[in-house]
């Protein structure tokens, strides 16, 4: 609709555009009206009436800064036009400037008879200033002038609520709802009041009434879904979550609701992904809190801490987040920090048994016996069942200074309740923190009791041994953990990674098979086994294992198998595998995306377009960019551009349309238009970060690093913890050879997101290249643990091992990386270095020649020198 006006208004007069714009606005198409008003002003910038209606349109679209700017222009062009005073006052009140709003509305009332609209704005201004009597008087006066004015009723109710007079607010809101049955605003306030009283069933009915008025209302969809989940009907709740995501794909509520459902199902990884997507669209403290819980459940304590802290940044009095923060710190044996958080929680909520419990435990572990016992005793009084386990944590022995007896008591608590295992582990971690690793190991060894619980202690012993680079002892401890509790899977996974890092895929295979004996459907073990079998050259066994993974999880299994085939250059087979997967999981977004990409790679554009159109129905954020890119590649530029324009006109405040249209222009080699689209969207969208990041990426692609750095810097001024921008800056400094600054920024990105593999990998490579090999190796191992089958990660770890004098361990990793990335000259160069170091001159020569034949790469000069040296030695 809007696109039509863009092409059809060139021959119209400014007066015709004004009248058509007014008509569109009255019909509810405010965006279309605004476009026509702006077109009229392009013909005549002094057309005051068009500018006035443009300002009103901006107010209707809640774009108040733009409205104020246009109203000020009207005031300059036509000082006698007093109509603008009320609209200016409204713009001021919506931008939290009550004093200016009052001044403007009182100027209007001084020369005009009072109107309900002006008095409502006056009442709202006084309400913001907490002048409740004046506010109520203004709202009542507005109601007397026009008894049908809904805003007057809502204002009166807001004053009552601000004063805490809930019972007085309800009848006013009920009257408003009766007078305006098609307006949801009064019902929204009633619903919140009823929910605050704990009347959930009544609240559910009111939220349903809101949906009857507006089936797209975000709050109502979310609350009905939440109440449905609360009743235990997760499947029905899931419908509301998916409706929210479909209707409002750029809002956080649907993803948060999905996350809550997955959390209830104990699907921690999938729940975490949902909460992260919620936060990428805005989110709130609940998303941070539950994301923290998901990470805590998976043992990712640093990430959990970050999320709990972010929840507390939003609301410092949110006790659940503070207590989980304290509990996580306790698990990490960060006792001083745990004590501080416990004390803060107790000060905020003195009757919180959980707070006294955690505080008491931390104090006891710190050796502050009297204080710790007092807190635990109070916790017992507040909730006799809650503190029992913690009282078993060796409080008496710690108070007497008898560490050995304290450890024995802690072990008893562990045997009674596995959740209390952190008592002994925390003591060991305390020693580690003090630089006393030997004492930590001794304390753990003393806790061994020849039972299943030994498995957890052996597992932690292995981690300590690996820290000390006692690799054989670490591997032995993991074997003992397996013996103590054969169905404890973590040691198998750790040994698998250990053997892969040592280029012993055959031993890794045995570990993954060991997992599958106890958990035949463990998807991670199946995929790691398949990749390890492939690395050994056992192709048929690998294929059989990939197929088992597909049976366990048709979508993820198909993806892993297809990626393996693509890395081997077997795209037709990959296409067949993905098509078979879609037969088992019709319209699965990830599979549609992969099949479409394979079709596009093979230049089968009609098939790719069909897949991406289907993908766009369920995942527009994935499907539409791919569809547009393929349309451009197939020469259908006009259709691609129309797709982008339509998205922008339908939702001008969402970043997605601008990103898509910019990508279309960029794919058409029109970078000027790509930039222009992003610049147009930046002041309009509700979250400018995606547009800014995209702009920085375009600038980097054109070698305009200084401008890209400026864009990243502007993002970080408003969002200092936005790690993608930190990583972007680090990458530019790395590319420019500014290694100290790059290292600092990579480390900052890793602190913000400890599991961000690209930053870990790039930091490892940078440090290794700067002769900080030990640190580089540490970060490379961290990245490898998170992504053990990624060939780029294998390359970095292999190179770090080579630089550390461990070429024998590097060899298998680099051979695997080279097999997966046969056209990457840097990987081949690294492999040649290892061959040379191991005395395999012939293989080194052959690999160097292959590397140099691939074109330019950063290490080309060194590769050429090594090749010349080897040729000279023959």
Automatic annotation (TrEMBL):
UniProt key word Transit peptide: no
SUPFAM superfamilies reported for this sequence: TPR-like
Lineage top rank: taxon: Bacteria
Keywords (A to Z) from UniProt: Repeat, TPR repeat
Ranges: TPR repeats: 116-149, 150-183, 285-318, 455-488, 489-522, 523-556, 723-756
PANTHER family: LIPOPOLYSACCHARIDE ASSEMBLY PROTEIN B, TPR REPEAT-CONTAINING PROTEIN PA4667
Name this polypeptide is given: Uncharacterized protein
